[in-house]
Amino acid sequence: MPDKILIVExxxxxxxxxxxxLKKEGYTVETVGDGRSALTVxxxxxPDLIVLDIMLPEMDGFEVARTLRKEMTTAILMLTARxxxxxxxxxxxxxxxxxxxxxxxxxxxxxxxxxQLRRARLLREEMGRPAEETPHEALTFDNLTxxxxxREVTLNETPIQLKPKEYxxxxxxxxxxxxxxxxxxxxxRVWGWDYIGDSRTVDVHVRWLRQKIEENSSEPKRxxxxxxxxxxxxx
Length: 235
What we know:
Helix content is 42%, strand content 21%. It has eight helices and twelve strands. It has helices at residues 12-24, 35-45, 61-69, 85-93, 106-127, 164-175, 183-191, 200-213, and strands at residues 4-8, 28-32, 49-53, 75-80, 98-101, 138-141, 144-147, 152-155, 158-160, 181-182, 223-226, 230-233. Strands 2-1-3-4-5 form a five-stranded parallel beta sheet, sandwiched between helices. A four-stranded antiparallel beta sheet has the order 6-7-8-9, with helices on one face. Strands 10-12-11 form a three-stranded antiparallel beta sheet.
């Protein structure tokens, strides 16, 4: 079955252009023009990807993303007319998987849509594997445990809430313990070689992880910065 995409955009001309081009690619597309309708339709449609504008009537895109991220793991590609870094950071904070600034080329948007859908498909396949196919049930580092079967992380035996990308990043770092990993290498392996973004995305997610797993996030002992290089996970 074709992937389902929900477009949440209040500019009718852009909404129609997005819908037309994505349907041409073979996707099933639904459109809405405000934040509250986005919640209603997303809950009913259960889309594989949401293209979500930030500036919306009724409820802005940040609030829509924050609400939906508590209910589903659907990939979210946020759109904005502003190029402020704070928007990018907030968008990632509330659970967006990617971010585009208007105006953008349709070719780039379609490339990003395909990349997010591909990653979502791989993640579903990974989560659907039988437990016996998982090489290790869990990775344990003192009081920190990464349960691969349940995709759960505990600190002092207490579960900690991680966004999907935070979990993937932590697992990748842990699987390469004590190896220096460049930001570019991490970006390629965790976000995908076709991810169109920059290495600051890695820095933001590392900062969030440190706040959750380090005793003192300002003096990290587990995820160490390698000057001029990248990061190293010490466990």
